[in-house]
Design goal:
2 domains; Glutathione S-transferase Yfyf (Class Pi), Chain A, domain 2; binds glutathione; globular; Glutaredoxin; five-stranded mixed sheet; alpha+beta
Amino acid sequence: MAVVIPTNKSVESLQGLHLYHGAISNCSMRVRMTLIEKGLDWTSHHIDLKKKENITDEYFGINPNGLVPTLVDNGVVHIESNEIIDYLDETYPEPSLRASKNAEMMEWLRLAGSIHVPAIKPYVYATKMANKIKKSAEEEAKYAALQTNDELKEFHEKHKGVNQFTDDDLAKSEAILAECFGKLEKALAGNQWIMGDKYTLADISWIPVHFVLVGCGYSFDPYPNIVRWAEDFRAKPSFQEGVLKWCPDFSEV
Ligand SMILES: N[C@@H](CCC(=O)N[C@@H](CS)C(=O)NCC(=O)O)C(=O)O
């Protein structure tokens, strides 16, 4: 469980559920959807990534990676979106979003988490975000002073200043995505949801990835089962409230 001891002690006195999240962040979308599915009351602390509101001493004091989302539950700080949704389902079990084959479902969450930096983030930045989210020299200096995570430092170096993601970065990311979506396509053959008839955390973990990639121009034409599965979310209140209300169309971001 990704619990962190915050250096920004102000959050330790928060009562109830507080979510620090980004409107356009796919990782935040999965947590918002889970909170909504569970009918939980939560206080929103919106962090505007385009305005670099995550690059502050205050926020790094809550999330040591400077990433959204962060959930604070009665003063306890949780990071890592896939771990947060698992935590929410454990702690607030009704309605259950867990599959009877729990290990298999957790493997889908682990997979979504494991491809975030090698595939999802580079694809989104290379095709869309890098130019929109360029840091000023002052923001670069602030980020360098705050960020201690080497993987994230290396990732953000790739689009720092005049640097750009290369064709090779994009090709590597596309290869990983193709392998994952091949698996997802197979899992959805003859099934409404990833784990079968029951809608679970696995679906919640993956739909934001689909939503954001579509907005970046990724084609799901080779995956008809995924296209049909994604369509089914349009009618879900948790998708409308947790995704579309905050980000109606990622291509417009
Ligand atoms: N593994 C983390 C990844 C979180 C993450 O990368 N969040 C993005 C938005 S989806 C973010 O905060 N980006 C800002 C940055 O990289 O500085 C999780 O699942 O919570």
